[in-house]
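question for whoever is on the cluster today: can someone run the full assembly for these? two chains, 413 residues total. i dont have access anymore since they changed the login thing
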Amino acid sequence: MDGIAWASSAMVAARSRLDIATENLANVSSDGFHAALARGRLTDRGIEIARVSAPGHGAYRRTGRPFDFAIVGEGAFRLQDAGGAVSATRNGAFERDRFGVLRDEQGRKLIGTILAPGASVRSGFLETSNVDAIAEMVGVLTSQRSFESAEKVVAAIDGVRQKSSNDVARIK
Amino acid sequence: MDRALFAAATGMAAQQQNLDTIANNLANADVVGFKGSQDEFTALAAPGEAGAGTVRTGEHPLFKAGKLERSNGPFDVAIDGEGFFLVTDGPRRAYTRAGEFSRAADGTLRNAQGWQLAGVHIPANALTASVAEDGAVTVTTTGGTQTVAHLQLAQFAATEELQSADGALFMQTRESGSPRWITPGGESGPKLRFGMLEQSNVSIVESMMQILTAQRAYEANAKGIQAADEMLRIANNLQRG
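^ ran it for u. tokens below:
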């Protein structure tokens, strides 16, 4: 890989970091949301950004609604959609349909919970988003600055190449 | 490419809606029997894929009781416990905890919007009226006292599914189920408090805090848009000729 390829992979990586930070910021008010963390690593194709789920859970918010559930400790709610696909979530905002089945706001049926030993479910509470808005703002700034510095490197290498191709070989 | 721009835009829209709801709560912080509501948001993501922002999935009234305060209005009554008064307007039926009624010319008790408290008729010669804990409506006339009605309270299997008309008046829905009728005044049941009113359950302090949080979140999302835009500008300027 040449220098421009390295530096441009850094620009793409900075852009991915910004995607992750804005995605997290958009969800500061989404109950049960778990922020994604950007993890950069060097590969032979340059810098790559992987997403991992942020550890820890959001604070608990009292709603007083009987079918709002929060998991205290590790665990998840198991949901099944109309097509039968099963997924897991920590967003415990459910509503009772007229058959008495609890469904989330996208209509997925609650079919059970997976709870770690010692974990419990509390009714009348929701787990809030675990996004740390300050950390994400710092993420927006740093991704912007690293994008800018990578761009400087691309421009510098480009300048050198321009010189060598246009000036060095010029015959007077 | 512009995942960041779109995600941040959904975040701004969400906080805008959030502010609308909080502002409506605040505006009604002094309205008798008003129930504040809260927006709910969910991440916008297809299973197994990275997200693309957030979306509002609903607005729910919170049925927490408001404080009961002495008002001394001649026909004011508050519910201490669970349940709703049935009020009617022609064929329309609604449920409310706002017990601020006044006597109309035809002897009915009506609220400020003209909804009538079901089942009560005050005789024209009544001097005073009162409501007991158990819902008995008693009037005093020159000829003595007499009980003219027994108020009952409506309870629902799924109160949270009632549909809010204006925050104080609620309509039955298929999901809420039909009302169960409760006679107040029992050992553990709800009781009626005459001469008192249930205040709005909106906490001004809590709403102010929510406004601040929503405003900052809105700003943070706007910064995300700025950053994404700035990167696009820089990328466009890479080619300097």
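summary bc i know u wont read the tokens: The two ends of chain B are 25 Å apart (CA to CA). DSSP finds two helices and 18 strands in chain B.
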